[in-house]
């Protein structure tokens, strides 16, 4: 075999390994090409084994549209929109605070003073019953609920219908 052929084969192998590894990481961590995984999100993808995972479909964990409307009208809600900032800017539920899903764990670990300074709202307490997460269709808010529960926010809930249902119901 010629020396240049070995070098060429090594280069092809290295490039192919990089492409496959990057694609594999994107699939495992669920990231899109426009965002990059954090160490925490990668670690969570491989180590999540909480017994509470999957509880987001439990009826006690879900807030309906009518419940959400009541909570909003009574000003008895801490509503967190876990969509990306561009989705939030395009339209959002009134009084919702935008904390993208990728930043949620880090944000919920902030001190109350830092949280209030960063988001201009009171930090949620671990025993608060009025914490509600929402996204576009319910998938990311269910993930947000799992993250919050792992951090000790045992009474948090999510609006399963998401912004899609909200918009649909508001048009009626």
UniProtKB/TrEMBL annotation:
Short name of any one Pfam family annotated for the protein: Rhodanese
Keyword Signal annotated: yes
Domain Rhodanese: 73-171
PROSITE patterns, alphabetized: RHODANESE_3
Assigned keywords, A-Z: Signal
Signal peptide: 1-21
Protein name listed in UniProt: Thiosulfate:glutathione sulfurtransferase-like
Primary gene name: si:ch211-161h7.8
């Amino acid at each position: 075999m010629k020396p240049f052929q070995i070098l060429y084969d090594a280069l092809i192998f290295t490039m192919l390994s990089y492409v496959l590894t990057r694609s594999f990481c994107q699939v495992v961590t669920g990231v899109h090409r426009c965002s990059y995984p954090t160490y925490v999100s990668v670690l969570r993808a491989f180590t999540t084994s909480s017994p509470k995972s999957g509880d987001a479909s439990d009826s006690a964990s879900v807030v309906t549209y009518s419940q959400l409307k009541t909570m909003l009208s009574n000003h008895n809600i801490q509503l967190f929109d876990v969509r990306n900032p561009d989705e939030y800017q395009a339209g959002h539920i009134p009084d919702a605070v935008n904390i993208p899903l990728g930043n949620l764990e880090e944000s919920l670990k902030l001190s109350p003073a830092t949280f209030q300074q960063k988001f201009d709202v009171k930090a949620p307490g671990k025993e608060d019953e009025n914490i509600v997460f929402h996204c576009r269709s319910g998938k990311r808010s269910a993930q947000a609920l799992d993250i919050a529960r792992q951090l000790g926010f045992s009474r948090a809930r999510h609006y399963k219908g998401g912004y899609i249902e909200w918009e649909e119901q508001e048009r009626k």
